[in-house]
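Model: You mentioned two targets. I'll fold them one after the other.
Researcher: Yes, keep them separate.
Model: Target one:
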Amino acid sequence: QVQLVESGGGLVQAGGSLRLSCAASGRTFSNYIMGWFRQAPGEEREFVASITWSRGNTVYADSVRGRFTISRDNAKNTVFLQMNSLKPEDTAVYYCAARSIRNSKYDSWGQGTQVTVSS
């Protein structure tokens, strides 16, 4: 069973940076895609970024492209989200998620970590 544990959230001023981590366990992830999503109060959960575990191919939402960077450490089974130039509108609970490359939907989720950006 896949387990995902996020860490690294917190309170930061606008323009600052945070680095989120997602420790993955429970299986081999070579055929998986790892994603970051976020959900602000009263809003739908939205896609932020994803990375293929094997080749490291990345995809970003328009709202974060150029400011956020997703990466992974295969040896440590950990996925990162480096967030720079943070804005108040980035405030949300950030979730790590995983899916097999054969699946269209993410089916494993972490518990989430709060990111709050003050103006």
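Model: Target two:
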Amino acid sequence: QVQLVESGGGLVQPGGSLRLSCAASGSIFSINAMGWYRQAPGKQRELVAVITRGGSTNYADSVKGRFTISRDNAKNTVSLQMNSLKPEDTAVYYCNAQIDTGIYHSNYWGQGTQVTVSS
């Protein structure tokens, strides 16, 4: 059984910062790409940022220069540092990981953490 557990969401004023973290645990042989997605009310889930095992990153245009994704392969964790937050960043943020259990390879999701940017 594999689990992704997120932490770090909350309420922040515009221009503020938050750091999201996600830890993968369970029967893990290796983790390929890890990433963060978000879903605002009434909208589809969208990619925010992704990072490969080797450290290559990709960001949504809307967050480039403000958000930074990082990972610790030894600890099976991924983080998202969010700076200069805007009200339009308000959403539920989901951690995602492509995990090889040694038996099969599958895509896993965390339960989501709410980020609200408001004055």
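Researcher: Noted. Anything on target two?
Model: The mean pLDDT is 97.
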